[in-house]
């Protein structure tokens, strides 16, 4: 009888998740650890990051936290070096860190614009810059970037976020072309509205009641609900695993049919 091998199992691999202290990042860290990867949560929020890593480790025993500001070249370089020194490899990188400011271009202050672009787009660039050489040494890997439905179409009062996520989507394509010969796959997951601290923060920025905002965000979608973080984490696991071994340079929309 042939031995069955679950293609979703990523045991023995090392996965790095930026923005992993909450929301989609935390759910993705949980599922990557659940399916066997040694998982490292990176986040600028030290308190939440340490708590989240303990939460994952209590279930799966293979998660740690490292404090990281993804907007700093020196910090990203040093964090990646620390991970390589300890684990000798990085197989999966989930560039998930992001922030949103709900303003149009007239309302935006320059510092707000810079913050959104720096965290979402520059952070993806910097982490990839230092992780890719580690992947090359070990024969390849999988990079997943968090885009957005608003990286594929416009949205109201979110000018910097739309710009950043559109940049992430096309950066994904460029990286896939450049690093495919090194057996590095680069893909983008584009969530729709998902019940995360970020989405609830958007409600507050816009002056809406959180629960009413979440309900209204889901009722027009074909599946009649907003997402939960695990919905997106499932897609991250797929793109990290051997099930997606011939998929690169693509965007996977996970939004309950909202973009359709």
Write structural notes for this entry.
The protein has about 260 residues and is an alpha/beta fold. The chain folds into two domains: about 15-190 and about 230-250, Rossmann fold; about 195-225, no CATH class. Helix content is about 45%, strand content about 15%. It is built from eight helices and seven strands; from the N terminus they run βαβαβαβαβαβαααβ. It has helices at about 25-35, 45-60, 75-85, 110-135, 160-180, 195-205, 210-220, 230-240; strands at about 15-20, 40-45, 65, 90-95, 140-145, 185-190, 250-255. The chain has a seven-stranded parallel sheet with strand order 3-2-1-4-5-6-7, with helices on both faces. β2, α2 (about 45-60) and β3 form a beta-alpha-beta unit. The longest helix has 28 residues, at about 110-135. The chain is globular, with a radius of gyration of 18 Å. The termini are far apart. The mean pLDDT is about 95.
């Amino acid at each position: 009888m042939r031995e069955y091998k679950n293609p979703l199992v990523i045991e023995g691999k090392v996965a790095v998740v930026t923005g992993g202290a909450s929301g989609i990042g935390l759910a993705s860290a949980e599922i990557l650890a659940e399916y066997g990867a040694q998982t490292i949560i990176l986040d600028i929020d030290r308190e939440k990051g340490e708590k989240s890593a303990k939460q994952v480790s209590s279930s799966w025993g293979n998660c740690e936290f490292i404090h990281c500001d993804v907007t700093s070249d020196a910090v990203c370089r040093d964090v990646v070096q620390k991970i390589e020194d300890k684990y000798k490899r990085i197989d999966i990188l989930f560039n998930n860190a992001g922030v949103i400011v709900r303003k149009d271009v007239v309302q935006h202050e320059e510092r707000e614009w810079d913050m959104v672009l720096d965290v979402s787009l520059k952070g993806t660039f910097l982490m990839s810059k230092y992780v890719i050489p580690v992947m090359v040494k070990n024969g390849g890997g999988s990079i997943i970037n968090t885009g957005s439905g608003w990286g594929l179409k416009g949205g109201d009062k979110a000018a910097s976020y739309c710009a950043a996520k559109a940049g992430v989507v096309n950066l994904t394509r460029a990286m896939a072309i450049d690093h495919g010969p090194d057996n590095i796959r680069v893909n983008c997951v584009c969530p729709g509205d998902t019940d995360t601290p970020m989405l609830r923060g958007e409600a507050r920025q816009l002056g809406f009641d959180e629960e009413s905002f979440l309900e209204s965000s889901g009722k027009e979608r074909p599946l009649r609900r907003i997402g939960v973080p695990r919905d997106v984490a499932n897609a991250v696991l797929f793109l990290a695993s051997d099930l997606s071994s011939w998929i690169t340079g693509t965007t996977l929309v996970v939004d309950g049919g909202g973009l359709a």
